[in-house]
TrEMBL record:
One of its GO terms (biological process) is small GTPase-mediated signal transduction. It comes from Panagrellus redivivus. Keywords: Guanine-nucleotide releasing factor. Residues 471-492, 518-559 are annotated as: Disordered. PROSITE patterns: DOCKER. GO terms for cellular component: cytoplasm; plasma membrane. This is DOCKER domain-containing protein. Belongs to the DOCK family.
């Protein structure tokens, strides 16, 4: 059933449950009677388990869960090597593993979004009545599409258009569906932060047991607004965390919610840290894609760089100056003081990441405008000077001898000669993967739809691959390592020579290692009574994962 409906991952996980019932240690063991109908032409339990594992790997491959396919095939290695002692099968298995590793390392994938669904009322079947679940949607499925699917499945249900807890509807007559997009929370120990961007992407969206919903609150009268009453000092974020019974994906595309909690609201300093870290992660991921050969992201990288640098003209990090004042330091709790230190370090790392992005951007001179890049460098130098003046010396991730300037200006072949610093559109791919003129503003909280690179559920692909959805259901972009540019003498120079890939990989590891800043979030601040107005569910899809949303009215309980 799963295979016929295209749910290959769920089919593979179902096979896994069945295969665990078989004895794989004894190759001559008989197949249990209850599995004879599923023997797949095998006569022994060992043979059937082997066949099921190979079938599992094929399903995971079709579902683009190559990491799980690799794990399944690796379990066959000791069976071939020590039990069957069949080196022919072992050689074939390693060739298959090589293909899967190559796919992980060279192919972009589209993520599935997750949705919190609460079933209220007495009109649902018993299994669903007054229960809450997290569903795994289809690839790049929007809230409206998922909601339409659910309404067709549960005909006659009414939607609950609020993100607030609606337990008051329990026991009510009728059918009520509350559907909210939620953000997966990656397990801390899943993967080392220095792993490749494509591998990190997988674990960011899969094997998830916890999800969160972010709700912005506004408070005008707290210690944070003492010196400066701005959006940055008014904005708090209330988190709602849901934990499900088992990791998703699983044999079904949903899991029941076991419990929910609302930790204390994040204060404005923590909100500022999260904002900057989101931008840093987006810049770093895009730069890494360009560095490993995905030339389609050269344009978006330039757009992100100019978006951050020009956002500072309208306020930017200047809005955070009050957090470092003596008055705030005197009022801050020890936990808040730690957060303020983390904010300073995050800002200084932010400068280093932009510098690294400019270094990578300059490594593709044949794809960029020399005028555009030069203007980015000029803006960056002013940006860096301003931050270092306020917050101290910024850290540079570039080894000595590396530069953010173009290697040989003059006769470089630019992607376009009439591009300006205010608008840059990539033209390096036949597939339109999206323009790069979207600005990443740290302060534009009232225009969530423009902050396309800050949406958690699409940090890597949302602003690019989703626009190719209509032309291809499965976007696969292979590395392009044949790009070249011309130096001033007109000689063709390979990208590997102009910016050595091994050197870039070394710098990338340093960037990731130094920019994953850890410090405890403040749990001491309590909220007393939420007087905020409701947020429309449609806005929650953009708000979730980004604090750049419409603010809510004052909450007098925040201090």
């Amino acid at each position: 059933m799963n295979v016929s409906s295209g749910c290959f991952v769920e089919a593979a996980l179902t096979l896994r449950r069945v295969a665990e019932l078989l004895d794989g240690e004894n190759p001559e063991a008989e197949i249990p009677d209850f599995l004879l109908d599923y023997s797949r032409g095998c006569t022994t339990a060992g043979g059937l388990k082997e066949a099921m594992f190979l079938e599992m790997a094929e399903h995971f491959d079709k579902g683009e869960h190559w990491e799980k396919a690799i794990a399944v095939l690796q379990e066959l290695i000791p069976y071939y090597e020590l039990v069957l002692i069949d080196y022919g099968k072992l050689a074939q298995l390693h060739r298959r593993l090589s293909e899967l590793y190559a796919k992980v390392n060279s192919t972009l994938r589209m993520e599935s979004c997750y949705f919190y669904v609460a079933f209220y009322g007495t009109g649902f079947p018993e299994y669903w009545t007054n229960r809450k679940f997290v569903f795994r949607g289809e690839k790049l499925e929007k809230l409206g599409d998922f909601k339409a699917r659910m309404m067709n499945k549960f005909y006659g249900a009414q939607t609950v258009d609020t993100i607030k807890n609606s337990d008051h509807l329990i026991g009510e007559e009728g059918r009520f569906l509350q559907i909210i997009p939620v953000t997966p929370i990656q397990a801390e120990s899943t993967l080392d932060s220095s792993a490749g961007v494509l591998l990190r992407w997988y674990y960011k969206h899969h094997d998830i047991t916890s999800f969160e919903l972010l709700r912005p609150l506004r408070c005008d009268d707290t210690k944070w607004t003492t010196l400066m009453n701005t959006e940055s000092t008014q904005l708090w974020i209330q988190r709602r965390v849901m934990t499900v019974a088992h990791p998703l994906p699983d044999i079904l595309n949903f899991a029941p919610v076991e419990f929910e909690e609302e930790p204390p609201a994040n204060n404005p300093v923590e909100v500022a840290i999260n904002r900057i870290e989101e931008v840093n992660a987006s810049l770093r991921e895009t730069a890494e894609l360009v560095a490993i050969g995905f030339t389609e992201y050269t344009g978006p990288l330039g757009g992100k760089i100019i978006g951050v640098l020009k956002a500072d003209v309208g306020g930017g990090v200047k809005s955070y100056e009050s957090f470092f004042s003596d008055e705030i330091s005197a009022l801050a709790t020890p936990e808040e003081a730690v957060s303020i230190k983390k904010l300073r370090k995050t800002l200084l790392n932010h400068v280093g990441i932009i510098e690294f992005c400019l270094y990578v951007h300059a490594a593709r001179p044949q794809l960029i405008s020399e005028v555009f890049h030069s203007s980015c460098v000029d803006l960056f130098l002013d940006y860096k000077r301003a931050i270092e003046t306020r917050f101290g010396k910024a850290f540079s991730f570039l080894p000595l001898g590396n530069t953010i300037y173009l290697p040989a200006s003059g006769n470089l072949v630019a992607a376009s000669n009439n591009l300006s610093a205010s608008s840059f559109t990539g033209t390096t791919s036949n597939t339109n993967l999206g323009g790069s003129n979207s600005s990443i503003s740290l302060e534009d909280a009232n225009d969530a739809k423009n902050n396309v690179f800050m949406r958690v559920s699409g940090t890597l692909l949302r602003s690019t691959a989703s626009k190719a959805r209509s032309s291809a259901a499965n976007v696969t972009l292979q590395r392009d390592k044949k790009s070249s540019h011309h130096d001033a003498a007109g000689t063709s120079v390979d990208f590997d020579k102009s910016r050595d890939i091994a050197e870039m990989a070394y710098i990338l590891r340093n960037v990731i290692r130094h920019t994953v800043v850890e410090s405890p979030m403040d749990d001491s601040t309590e909220t007393e009574g939420d007087s905020s107005e409701d947020i429309d569910i449609e806005d929650a899809e953009d708000a979730n994962g980004s604090v750049s949303t419409a603010l809510e009215p004052d909450d007098p309980g925040l201090t």
